[in-house]
Amino acid sequence: MQKKIAIIGDRFMLPEVFRSEIEKACGNSLDIRTLEMAWPDEPMEFGNPALGLDKVKEYFGDPDEVVDFIGDAEIFVTQLSPLSDAMMRRLPLLKLVAVSRGGPINIDMAAAKTHGITVVNVPGRNASAVAEFTIGAILAETRLIRVGHEALRKGEWRGDLYRADRTGRELSEMTVGVIGYGNIGTRLVRLLRAFGCRILVSDPYVQLSADDRNAGVELVALDDLLARSDVVTLHSRVTAETRWLINKDTIARMKPGVIFINTARGPLVDYDALYDALVSGHIASAMLETFAVEPVPSDWPLLQLPNVTLTPHIAGASVRTVTYAAEQAAEEVRRFIAGLPPVNPC
Fold this sequence. Notes:
This protein is α/β, with parallel strands linked by helices. It contains twelve helices and twelve strands. A seven-stranded parallel beta sheet has the order 8-7-6-9-10-11-12, sandwiched between helices. A five-stranded parallel beta sheet has the order 2-1-3-4-5, sandwiched between helices. Helix 1 crosses helix 12 and helix 5 crosses helix 7. It starts with a strand and ends in a 9-residue tail after the last helix.
């Protein structure tokens, strides 16, 4: 009997890409149905007790529509669709959920275990994209790319940016502090090494690779990193320990004139404290890609500061992220059909 697979994609993780990769991995003898949701043209939601989604952190899609679409499928592939306990009770045939994200935060994992549903994900799916983006973010600040661009857009020729007391610095003469040495942090360090900068890493739960140690990368305590770094870039996960990791106290321990980069997660930063440090000049400039509230309010004070570059949480968005995540999800589907254990069980 054909395996029934339900795919709910969106306008980033396209359902036809999922289908194509699954057919490459498993052949064409499958019963596959697809549905495309409107994200990111419409915003995600963040938990909704009224819909029984209080244990789902962020998601996109109406629970009834999702359940009706999955129907009698044994395998469900998605990026953002929610699955709560109540929804799983209505899906007795569902056995595998492949979530094409770094974490299955749209799934009630406790309920999945209770219902005997295997959930897999794609850790590090956008690590390369975010690491590359972070290099661009650092260069935008260190070489005054944003400053020059904004001036020219206003018709101002900032020849003064060639003055020795105003021009930017090269990474080759700077110390870059990388907080977090996971999938993204390790890739970023590999890219940074090509610039010849001094690289400090702070992460209490890892050891540096032999390759990084041999290249002179240093693993240091957080306070040491903050005190020595010309650029501080965040790549930690959000946990109870790291929430508001960058706050009034840790900012005070940073070197005056530091450049701050956040392409990780908004809840890692106390944005009120960051605002004060940017206004005072203790932090010379910042590049912010993620925020505590998304989309950011139009009257958010940080939008008004001249020494901040902002982007709308797009660091992980690349064509390769889409194809890589679909390939990994397809491999999990292939292994499930073949009776093999998953590569990335949650």
